[in-house]
Amino acid sequence: MARLQSLAALAAAAAASAVLAGLLYKRKCGRLTARVRELEDSLADAVEKAAAERRGRVRAQQSLRRALSEQGASPDKGKPAKAPASYPMAPIGSVQSCFSTRNGTPRQPLVVPLARATVVLNPARVAAEALEGLASYSHCWILYVFHLNTDLDKMWKDPARSKLKAKVRVPRLKGGKMGVLATRTPHRPNPIGLSVAKVEAVDGHAILLSGVDLVDGTPVLDIKPYLPYSDSVEGATIPNWLEVDGALAVESIHFSEHFISSLSNCWAHVQKQALYASADEFQDLIKEVLSWDIRSLSQRLRPHQVTIESKADDCGSKADKDCRNKEDYQAADSCSIVVYHLHLEGIDVSYKIDENSNIIVDNAALLPSAANQNRCSYLTWRDKLNTL
């Protein structure tokens, strides 16, 4: 009997303990529920506060833009209008291109498949993670600044005196004019360029591109992936003057024996910093670049910034001088040959072109700045390219 009483007492104690534990658990759950509700309310308040601040910033930005826009229109006709609103932009990187100067840089992207460049982003502005996924695209868009435009200083320092030319001369029209916004001229209301390029490789803050029409040192504003389903418009049309086949094509390109030997000597100095695997591949680049007549309209009508060589010994100094002073250089062809220069990868390539558009590439010479370049080269990308 005593044992039964003891067991009953233990059971009663256990039941009481279980009831007490249940009460404590319920109280604890109540406290936790209250705490969760308190945190949820606090989070909702924080979200609402952030949304209110964001709405305030948007309203302030809109008010500022309206104020700046209103400043552009002067209420008094006698007073000059103030500068219109502007939007701050800064380059995110720059281009290291095979094209040292504007002369020879293709007029459009992808027409010279071997034309290579490296876009190097500024680590202080753009993290390397920003390029994650870009290598999965075949092509990308490059937005950049036409930094070598001759009228940039006037546009920035005194925009009121910088008048936009409504029409520009078009190479395919042989000097005929077309509306500036109907062309790809670099001399635009705002000196912004847009080019598509093939993505060869991505490494850290650098992108290797091909098919570029970008000159060395070009400041890059943005990079966007090329999307065929939206960027390639089915059924798109162009004006008839753009459909002329071979309008700027040359007849033939030949390399002299002297050029082959001189290129070999130059290549020994530049190969460690060039974007090409060999002198033969570099020669292929030259052929692709020169397969289109890269001369400007004024150079074709009146060559300038080139070398004039005498054709024969009987073309004396007086005749030579007379030839150089003529306005129309075509009249000088009987006593002189025009030698043009193309700067690629730190090498000065000299060539001549006759009246039938046949090109002879004569010489290769090392440019003075070639040895001082510090840039990404083929050796930088070799392992990346071999794994593609």
UniProtKB/TrEMBL annotation:
Short name of any one Pfam family annotated for the protein: TrmO_N
Xref: PANTHER family: TRNA (ADENINE(37)-N6)-METHYLTRANSFERASE
Segments of this protein annotated with the region Disordered: 55-86
Record-stated family: Belongs to the tRNA methyltransferase O family.
Protein name, UniProt field: TsaA-like domain-containing protein
UniProtKB keywords: S-adenosyl-L-methionine
KW Nuclease (keyword) present: no
Classification of source organism: Eukaryota, Viridiplantae, Streptophyta, Embryophyta, Tracheophyta
Keyword 4Fe-4S: no
Domain (TsaA-like) ranges: 89-235
Gene3D superfamilies registered for this protein in UniProt: YaeB-like (2.40.30.70)
Superkingdom of this protein's organism: Eukaryota
